[in-house]
């Protein structure tokens, strides 16, 4: 992936560097801010610093329409480097969660994964139409897909042709891919059998050890191979868009 020309330090995490830049540019009294009276009536009707705005967008009381209006404003200012930093800072909680989930089982340098997640977000920011629906979801998805691609390039082969990319990491983070909902979609699409979906749910999401499951579902080694194959099918289906979020065109 071609990387944008900002945020990539000689060492350390790109997300850490972007967060530091965000805090510098949003420091009071002259930091980046938006006018709530211009963006949406569901926001405080006054100037709002971007640090406060990030907190507001994470609050369940903030409507989806207000969140979308904020992202439309930020996308509209994407040509300005300072506002690119601002957009990254607003998205940072999602970017951190995405990189953190994908880091489970990732054998490479976590800083590389951070950089790919950030790159995916920035590429999405540059490409998305300001008129597109669900802008925040689209941008988060761009970051997630870039991170998954990086994780899959470094995944470790498991017995039976499986992949070292954990199924929990393969699933997009909430709210656009609740894990149990993704499993239900996979069964409906014929990607997984109901039994394999149940195995993934119980072992990966509920944390029941395979050794314990083997007492009622067959030898542990057979379950491990079966689980690995099911996870690989599910991860491939998510990455190719067969299951998971369906974003409108």
Describe this structure in words.
About 60% of the residues lie in helices and about 5% in strands. It is mainly alpha-helical and about 250 residues long. The chain folds into two domains: about 15-155, no CATH class; about 155-240, no CATH class. Strands 1-2 form a two-stranded antiparallel ribbon. A two-stranded antiparallel ribbon has the order 3-4. Helix 3 runs parallel beside helix 5, helix 6 (about 110-125) runs antiparallel to helix 7 (about 135-155) and helix 10 crosses helix 12. The relative contact order is 0.11.
What is the radius of gyration computed over CA atoms, rounded to a whole number of angstroms? 20 Å
How is the biggest beta sheet arranged?
A: 2 strands, antiparallel
Count of discrete alpha- or pi-helical segments spanning 4 or more residues? 12
> Which strand order does the major sheet show?
1-2
Beta-strand residue fraction: under 5%
The termini sit apart by: 23 Å
Roughly what percent helix? 55-70%
What is the number of beta strands?
A: 4
Low-pLDDT runs:
1-10, 156-162
Number of domains: 2
Average pLDDT taken over every residue: 80
Shape label: elongated
SSE string, helices as H and strands as E = HEHEHHHHHEEHHHHH
Helix/strand-derived category reads mainly alpha
């Amino acid at each position: 992936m071609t990387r944008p020309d900002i945020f990539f330090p000689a060492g350390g995490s790109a997300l850490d560097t972007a967060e530091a830049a965000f805090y510098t540019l949003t420091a009071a009294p002259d930091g980046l801010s938006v006018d709530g009276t211009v963006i949406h009536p569901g926001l405080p009707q006054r100037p709002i610093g971007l640090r406060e705005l990030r907190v507001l967008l994470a609050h369940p009381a903030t409507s989806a329409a207000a969140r979308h209006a904020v992202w439309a404003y930020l996308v509209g200012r994407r040509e300005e480097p300072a506002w690119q930093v601002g957009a990254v800072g607003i998205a940072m909680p999602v970017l951190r969660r995405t990189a953190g989930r994908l880091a489970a089982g990732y054998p490479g340098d976590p800083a590389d994964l951070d950089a790919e997640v950030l790159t995916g977000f920035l590429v999405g920011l540059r490409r998305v139409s300001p008129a597109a629906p669900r802008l925040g979801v689209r941008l988060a998805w761009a970051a997630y897909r870039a991170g998954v691609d990086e994780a899959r390039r470094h995944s470790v082969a498991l017995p039976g042709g499986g992949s070292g990319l954990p199924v929990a990491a393969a699933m997009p983070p909430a709210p656009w891919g609740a894990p149990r909902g993704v499993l239900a979609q996979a069964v409906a699409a014929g990607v997984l059998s109901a039994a394999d979906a149940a195995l993934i749910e119980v072992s990966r999401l509920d944390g029941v050890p395979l050794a314990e499951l083997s007492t009622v579902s067959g030898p542990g080694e057979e379950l491990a191979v079966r689980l690995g194959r099911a996870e690989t099918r599910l991860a491939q289906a998510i990455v190719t868009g067969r299951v998971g979020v369906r974003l409108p065109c």
